[in-house]
Design a protein that fits this description.
single chain; 355 residues; mainly alpha; Rossmann fold; Tyrosyl-Transfer RNA Synthetase; 3-stranded parallel β-sheet; two-stranded parallel sheet; 13 helices; 5 strands
Amino acid sequence: MEKKKPRLLSGDTPTGRLHLGHWVGSVENRVLMQEDYDCYFLIANVQAFTTRMEKPAEVHQNVMDLMMDYLAVGIDPARSTLFLQSDIAAIAELTIFFSMLVSYPRVMRNPTIKDEIRDKGLGDNYPFGFLLYPVNQAADILAFRSEIIPVGEDQIPHLELTREVARRFNQLYCHVDTHTDDADYVKKGGLFPIPAHKLGRSRRLVGIGSPAPDGNLLKMSKSLNNAIFLSDDPDAIKKKVMAMYTDPNRLKATDPGKVENNPLWIFHETFNPDKAWVAQAEERYREGTIGDVECKRQLIDVLVNLIEPIRTRRLQLEQDPHYVISVLKEGTARANEEANHTLILAKEAMRQRYF
């Protein structure tokens, strides 16, 4: 018999097109892991409404953009299931049940929640759904009884909450001993695996713009206008790289060039496959014998070689929106079957299945 593949789930809130930070954060891993895992990829459009409930048309377009990006980067519908969160009713029902297992103070201790409130300037003006979405994310993952989650570093606090919910449910309703190792919960009668995370090769890719007032480099983000997108054409890439923030004190006699904490060299170290060139050029940069322009031109070539095949596939998908929707519809139907089955099992464990 063919060995059953372990289940993988990952996804994104549709906030716009994918950029290089998404790629090295988790999307690259998703593409590479399709062969060895039973993959489910979620478009979390419900979660998009936590901060954009007044912009439904924008959310709709962002769903389409994200689907085209998924397909363009190499997510294969023949090997993976792509689906839409809002059409999986079991996720909503599990969210309600799981919310009973999580206290309000526990949600507010989540550093990602605090960071988003600060970074988005929400103050006290955010809907209850914004605080509920970490629990909703737990339902996304557990509805498919996923074992491995490719994520960016900022999502680890959310995943830890998911792990707590899974343990609590298994202990309370499946009578799994509290001292059980995470890897053994299902073997001991639990319904939900305790999911592990898989980080990308770059945990927090910096943006191309200036640092924050405190000197720290800012994370790549569409909202900060410091991103290079996987759909950018060569001219856009060239323009962005040539304007990239580097070392403002470069070529001073005491410090000809600083490689550390310099976005130009962070990008070369992350994306340039010619490691020998990078090492040699970094040394010359420190000595002041190679200029920013030459190094940026080299980076432009590297990024165009990476992005152009993705952009070409995306342009083809833009001409066939019916295909994009058909892939999403078929994947959502498959996802519904799996999530509904999990919901039935969860209700049976909770003794809340009467019919």
